Amino acid sequence: MGLITVVLGVDAGGTISTQRLLGILTWLALALALRRETPLVRAQVLVVVLFATAVEYTFSPLLEVYTYRFDNVPLYVPPGHGLVYLAALGVGRTAWVRRHQVRLAGVVVAVGGAWALWGLFGTDRVDALGAFWFACLVGFLVWGPNRGLYVGAFLVVSYLEIVGTAVGTWEWQPYDPTGLVPIGNPPSGAAGGYGWFDLAALLLAPRLLALWHARRPSSDDRRPDPQRTT
Q: How far is CA 179 from the centre of its chain?
């Protein structure tokens, strides 16, 4: 969370060269953060980074649902998604969150619901997309495979969106490309949209890991055949 804050703050007033340097540092930070993680978590982060990068290039430069300062996808964004996932996962797997995850899910629904209602009825800039994503978040909290992760995602992603838009690192457009769906800046339920990355990681990473192990030769396969040695 601290690194995310620093990167966004520096990028807000920096040049494109500064942005590229921040990207290199963020990739290094992600690599260091993954050193202590299990192979499963590393696979989950890989899924998030790939999934999020595809979404970023589709919805920012192509569709311009939101735009960055230099009309690009900053180099730090793909690894940043990996760090965001690790931060949400770190919150979700703490003992305190695990003990109180039902109550905390209720707090998330209450706070997120109030934010979504405010986006619909309490401001001049209507936020229908945020309300839709909030409904997704509620679904993840009720039926998702890791409730603590989604509690963490609400905290981390909401903070990220508020800070990023406040300092001007990126900006959401008032409407989607069809002109029919109004969008807040930031959308109130952004964590619900991000929850799809998390869901993809939780569902796909075990399969990717199993496929990786299946394709790697076992220790027995790597042993030389005694009948073929001289």
A: 26
Q: Is 163 helix (H, G, I), strand (E, B) or coil?
A: helix
110 found inside a domain? yes
Supply φ then ψ for residue 171, to 5 degrees: -145, 135
Q: What is the mean pLDDT of each run of 10 residues along the chain (230 residues)?
A: 90 94 97 95 96 96 96 96 95 95 96 97 96 96 93 96 95 96 96 92 91 73 50
CA dist list (Å): 218 to 74, 212, 215, 223: 40, 12, 9, 9
> Rounded to two decimals, what is the model's pTM?
0.90
Examine residue 220 and state whether it is found in any structural domain, yes or no.
no
Specify the DSSP element, H or E, that contains 60.
none
Structural domain boundaries, residue 98 = 2-213
